[in-house]
Structures are given as structure tokens and as C-alpha cells.
Design a protein that fits this description.
heterodimer; A: alpha/beta; Rossmann fold; four-stranded parallel sheet; globular; B: alpha+beta; Histidine-containing Protein, Chain: A; 3 helices
Chain lengths: 130, 93
Amino acid sequence: MSENVGIVIVSHSADVARGTAQMVEQMVGREVPLGWCGGDPGGGLGTSVEAIMAAIERAWSEKGVAILVDLGGAETNSEMAIEMLPESRRDRIVVCNAPVVEGAVMAATEAASGATLEAVRRTAEELTPV
Amino acid sequence: MNKLRASVLMRHEVGLHARPSVKLTKLAKAFQSRIDLGLSPDGPWIDAKSIVKVMATKAPKDSTIYFRAEGGDAKAALDALVTLVDEDFPDGP
């Protein structure tokens, strides 16, 4: 079990999600549990609740998981995915209001220090203009 | 408690951009002390443990980075940070 908060990246594009995950791994390292998903099964753009649930499972940490999303459906589907998870996990997952690429790198940098889920979310959201 | 101070010339080709910022912040977070970073000996100071603020400094190549630290491991923190910058942000373990 990791001592660090996990990071999940949800994009409409598999390429964006994969590329963002690569940036996190290469810039921050592998000490942060990481899950990502993007695109629909046919290879087009989209997001799916099932894929997001699987990504949360891969990134799961007892300290919680911070999700970074791109647009519209990525956020609503992430919220649906959270609702479908066991109640014991729901309150340890947050969707960050932050740009997906920058937010993922910032959140992972914070998470790598062993920070709490709330601190990870705050760091990602520092990027967002009020 | 007195603040310890240190400074180091940064020669990294692109300056304090994404990857160097992440490395510096991660290292700073490994210490308990409060650590500030500035681009002049008089500040303004930012929290060296804040990735968002460190990256936002956008310090260019050949900037001198100033640190000040306060806490039980302040000396070790400054030594480690100066070494990181001086050695041009080598890849960690």
C-alpha cells in the first residue's frame, strides 16, 4: 500500500491522458500511484464511467485519490464513477478544479511528499484563477 | 531561532522550469524546516515547498537562487538544495 495520495487522469483523449501520465512519471517519479483513462472503446474521443472506476482502482491509496479531468463529461462521469464506488471510499476521492496536465504534475509533486488529499487538491487548485 | 541563509548560481540551460522546479520542491519537502526561496538576497520570498510558487518564479539561466531556512534540519536542507542546484539538477534515485 502506498503512503501517498493517488492521482487519476481523465481526458476525452487517450493520447492526452497517456501523455499526461508520462509527464507525471518522468517529472515527478513513480512513488505516486497513478491511473489514467481516455477515449471511448472505439478509439474516438470520450470518457466512460467504467474506465474511470478502473483507473481509480489502479491508483487507489488508503490516503485517497485526486482526479484531474479535462472537459464536461470527464467531470460528470468522474462524479458518477465515485458514486458507484463503495461508500467507504467515496469520501476519499476528490475531483480537482484544475487544468488536467498542469494540475496532474502539481498534484503529484505534492502527493510525493506524503501530503494529505486536501493538501494535494489545494495545490492543484492553486493554479486555477479565482 | 535564527534563519540560516545560502545562495547558489543556477546554470541550468532552461532555468527554473518544470522539471528543475519539481526536483527542488520535492527535495525541500523532504525537510521539516521552513524553507524560503528568493531571487535576491532581500526577497521577496516564496515557500520553497510550494510547487506552484516555485514554478511561477520562472528564474532564468544564470540567476542566483537565495534560500533561507529555519528549523532543526535547516543546515542539512540548505546544503542539499545548494548541491542540487549547483550540480544542475541531476536525476535522483
